Every structure is written in C-alpha cells, then in structure tokens.
Q: What sequence folds into this?
C-alpha cells in the first residue's frame, strides 16, 4: 500500500514495468516505446498527444490523429492492455445538444475524464473558433458524441477538467494565450456550475524558474486526487536556438482550493532524450496528456506524445514522485496569486 493515499480506482490491469535497477530518475520509460508508431490507420499519418481511461476491464481512448491533409481530428481507440491499440480509421462525428451535426474545423490534444457521480465522460480539446480555443464534449458509450458550448473565446489551449466538482462547481485548468505562439504561458483555473458559464478565474502557476519551463507551461493529464493534494503533471517549454523543447514537470495543488500551489518541482521529471522524442515531425517534445494511477499500488503510467509523431509511456510510483516534488519544490512569484 502506498503511503500517499490515492482517492481513485483500482486498475490492476494497467500497464507497468518495474523500475530498472540502474535507473536513478523518478520516472522511467516503457521498454518498448513508442507504443503507437507512424501511419496507424489508412487515414492517419501520425497519432500523438492523446488520452485514455479505464473502460470496464479494458481501456478506451481519444487520440489526436493528424490526417494526410495535415489537419488533426479526434479518433477513438480500444485496448485490452493499455499498450496495444486498435484505432478507428474514421474520426469522431459530433452532434450538438439538439442532435444536429457539429463537426470541428480541427481538433487536437484531447483529454478525457469520467466525472465522479455522473454517467458522462467529458472530452476537452483544442478547437477552431476564429482561433484556437477549448472545445468541450461528452459521451456515455464512445459511440455517440455530443458537443457542448466552447468554454472560452480564443485564444486558449490545454483544457483539463478535474475529475470531480470542487465546492459545488466544475473546475477547469487552461492556458490563455494571444495570436502568437502563447507568449502569456501561465496556467489558469476557472469554475462553472453547469459546464456552460465559466468564471471565478484564478492564476495557478506561472512560467519561469528553471529554463526548461521559462517560455510557457500547460496542464497535462487529469489531476490525480491524493492525501497530499491534487497531483498535477504538466508540460514546460523552453526556447532554444533550434526551437522549442517540451519537458514534463509536476506539482501539488490544494484539495479544496486548487488554485493554491503547495509544492512545485524545480526540475523536470521527463525531458526529450530518446530518439523517438528528439526526432520526428516536431523534434524534442514530451507532451503528457493522460495518466493511469492504481489506488492500491500507487503505480502511475503516464502517456505522452513524442516528437509530435508517436505515443509513449513512462512510469512512476506515487510515493516516490510526491517525495521528489516536495523535496525539490520551488514556488515562483505569482504562483497561486489571485487577481481579484
């Protein structure tokens, strides 16, 4: 049993490999990465930056699939073990709440969450709306998909819902930007009573600190509720003479007031090092979008887009990761600061 209590479900069949004896890091990679390679279906040239959830005794996911015309859409995928995936060749077909077709211009970097106490699985993605912003939708069976109102006007990315209501409201993390490539770069939090009207905006975390997250940051997988706070895994970006580099960090947020940062890891926990991360359609990218966590063992399997070309998996243990975050914490000026 983990020392850190995890308020989640048992996932005994989730992917897992024990930490290699010679590994000194807090995370380690799946030995057969990448788990999804190029051209996984006839229509899809690349699948990456994707998310999944347990579904019965198996797993189901929503995948960013860049089509052969270069335009990304969301596809559904199925797996018995979370590693070997059967991805549908056709993209998700959306309808609005009146049942009329409502297909996005484009859709990328989805997240998916089963909301506590509800039948629906909510999906968030970056959608076209006179510029990129956060599209929202839901499904009960991953066969019929209903689009909701977009959460915000442009420009915004990295919409990530908490898995339960907090103080009676839905809570969403996002990363506002402008028409450029996200000069703002900070993570914000918003609340909604109904998944339609969003307000009570608060800044959660600021870019900066170590150079690895100095250009921008963005929330990654659905936050994991623990006795030490909400575990938020996120990506951080630095700008080099050869372009952006996307790494992965972690923080703990207050359970009742998640705009308050308790601990924030000073160093990255994963950065592009392997060939499938450093070389691809976009070099030097590790982009986390989903994490499975078994409440009984504290095992974490983190799913990342790699070089905007592949899907990979990395592992961690909750106790070790929380200890690492707390012992290497560095809060920045502006973290958790409320503009009111």
A:
């Amino acid at each position: 049993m983990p020392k850190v209590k995890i308020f989640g479900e048992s996932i005994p069949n989730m992917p897992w490999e024990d930490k290699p004896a010679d590994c000194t890091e807090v995370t380690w990679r799946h030995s057969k990465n990448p788990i999804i390679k190029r051209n996984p279906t006839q229509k899809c040239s690349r699948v990456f930056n994707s998310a999944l959830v347990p579904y019965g005794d198996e797993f189901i996911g929503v995948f960013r699939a860049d089509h052969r015309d270069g335009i990304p859409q969301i596809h559904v995928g199925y797996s018995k073990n979370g590693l070997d995936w059967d991805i549908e060749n056709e993209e998700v077909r959306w309808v609005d709440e009146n049942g009329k077709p409502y297909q996005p211009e484009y859709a990328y970097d989805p997240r998916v969450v089963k909301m506590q106490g509800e039948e629906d699985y909510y999906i968030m993605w970056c959608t076209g709306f006179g510029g990129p912003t956060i599209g929202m939708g839901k499904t009960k069976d991953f066969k019929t998909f209903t689009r909701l109102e977009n959460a915000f006007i442009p420009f915004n990315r990295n919409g990530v819902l908490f898995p339960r209501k907090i103080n009676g409201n839905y809570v969403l993390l996002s990363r506002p930007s402008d028409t450029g490539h996200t000069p703002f770069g900070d993570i914000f939090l918003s609340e909604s009573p109904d998944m339609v009207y969003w307000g009570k905006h608060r800044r959660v975390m600021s870019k900066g600190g170590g150079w690895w997250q100095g250009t921008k940051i963005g929330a990654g997988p659905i936050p994991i509720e623990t006795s030490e706070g909400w575990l938020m895994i996120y990506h951080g970006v630095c700008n080099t003479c050869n372009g952006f580099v996307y790494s992965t960090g972690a923080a703990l947020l207050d359970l009742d007031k998640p705009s308050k940062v308790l601990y924030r890891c000073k160093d990255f926990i994963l950065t592009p090092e392997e060939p499938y991360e450093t070389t691809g359609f976009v070099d030097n990218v590790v982009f986390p979008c989903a994490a499975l966590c078994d409440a009984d063992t504290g095992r974490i399997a983190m799913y990342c887009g790699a070089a905007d070309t592949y899907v990979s998996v990395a592992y961690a243990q909750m106790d070790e990761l929380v200890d690492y975050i707390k012992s290497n914490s560095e809060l920045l000026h502006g973290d958790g600061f409320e503009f009111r």
